[in-house]
Design goal:
The protein has helices at about 1-15, 30-35, 40-55, 70-85, 90-110, 115-120, 140-150, 155-170, 175-180, 210-225, 245-260, 270-280, 285-295, 300-305, 310-320, and strands at about 185, 190-195, 200-205. With about 350 residues, it is mainly alpha-helical. The protein has 15 helices and three strands. The longest helix is centred in the N-terminal third of the chain and has 21 residues, at about 90-110. Strands 1-2-3 form a three-stranded antiparallel β-sheet, with no helix packed on it. Helix 4 (about 70-85) packs antiparallel against helix 5, helix 7 packs antiparallel against helix 8 (about 155-170) and helix 8 (about 155-170) packs antiparallel against helix 10. It starts with a helix and ends in a 22-residue tail after the last helix.
Length: about 350
């Protein structure tokens, strides 16, 4: 009995001393968001649900009777988003959010969502991405020009931005992964970084030699040993502020260096990530290994990052000749009948 009492007290402490939500206070949206791990995921999916609610004529996601959601509603909403010009990725993440809420509406029970209703919603197919894929991979010369622009900046922002380019183009980090790094994630013994990616998946990225390692170490010398964010803002006087850079600051830093390098096209964080995938695949690295380096859960996602040039594709096809001889044309005039 004492053990049961202790567990009850512990539960009250875990819940902050308050009561658990009553069943009437629960909504499929609330439970679905609570089931997501990362705060960033919760924020993104809430935005998707608000968008879906708005397209269905509601002011907020809480106004929708989610237990009444059906397969036809989801298909019609998907078509409405396509007509409105939403990107396939935006439509598909919205579909994922709707399926998650529908599942919770079924699990909670008593909301009108049967298992058959949920299963029909669950099989709604995602939108296929356009063949004209966005993004690009930078050439070796473009990367060198970016880094040279960083070298010309004698303030701490120079090595900071060189480190940023190295993390994205040679570590394959996502923008959120880069700004989420802390100094303690760097292991000085083997020059590796512990990276926390999507779905709380962790991977280790190595900077054992070359310019990427030098860029990382140069920034660490400029940054100092204070605990906190690895990538930090640098003010106009060149002083490092030990706090996290924002995602927008990453875009601005790359845009600035691209202008200084006089590149003809803009550079995004994901372009640098694509650059790693393309350069590795171009050198014959196995696709599954590239998948691991990028932290992809599905290898099919890795293929989307392949930006190998058309020249490489032509050369690859030239390796597979097909022996075929064109039939000889018969001599004589065609189209005339026999003489009588």
């Amino acid at each position: 009995m004492a053990e049961v009492t202790q567990k009850a007290v512990a539960l009250q402490l875990v819940r902050g001393g308050g009561r658990l939500p009553q069943e009437r206070d629960l909504s499929p949206v609330r439970v679905y968001l609570a089931s997501l791990g990362q705060p960033k995921s919760k924020e993104s999916m809430l935005v998707c649900l608000k968008r879906a609610a708005r397209l269905m004529g509601a002011a907020s996601a809480e106004e929708i009777v989610w237990g009444a959601l059906r397969y036809a509603h989801v298909e019609l909403l998907k078509e409405r988003m396509k007509t409105a010009g939403y990107e396939p990725a935006t439509i598909n993440v919205t579909l994922s959010a709707l399926k998650g809420v529908a599942k919770q509406a079924w699990l909670l029970g008593g909301l009108g969502m049967s298992v058959d209703d949920y299963q029909r919603i669950a099989v709604v197919k995602p939108v296929r991405a356009s063949r004209d894929r966005r993004g690009r991979a930078l050439s070796g010369d473009e990367l060198a020009a970016l880094l040279k622009a960083c070298e010309s900046d004698k303030t701490a922002a120079g090595p900071r931005d060189a480190c940023l380019v190295a993390l994205l183009s040679r570590g394959g980090l996502r923008r959120e992964e880069a700004v989420g790094l802390s100094l303690e994630d760097f292991d000085r013994r083997d020059h590796s970084l512990l990276v926390r990616g999507k779905g709380d998946r962790e991977r280790t990225v190595f900077f054992r030699r070359g310019g990427a390692r030098r860029a990382l170490l140069a920034w660490l010398r400029a940054r100092g040993d204070a605990d906190g964010a690895l990538l930090c803002p640098v003010d106009k006087s060149g002083r490092v502020e030990v706090r996290r850079m924002t995602a927008q600051a990453v875009y601005k830093a790359l845009s600035k260096r691209a202008r200084q390098a006089q590149l003809t096209r803009a550079v995004t964080p994901h372009d640098l990530r694509r650059t790693l995938a393309t350069h590795l695949l171009d050198r014959g690295v196995d696709l599954s290994l590239v998948q691991q380096l990028l932290g992809h859960a599905d290898v099919s996602t890795t293929t989307i990052y392949d930006r190998r040039s058309e020249d490489a594709q032509r050369e690859a096809l030239d390796l597979l000749p097909l022996e075929y001889r064109k039939p000889r044309r018969r001599k004589g005039k065609r189209g005339r009948g026999r003489r009588k």
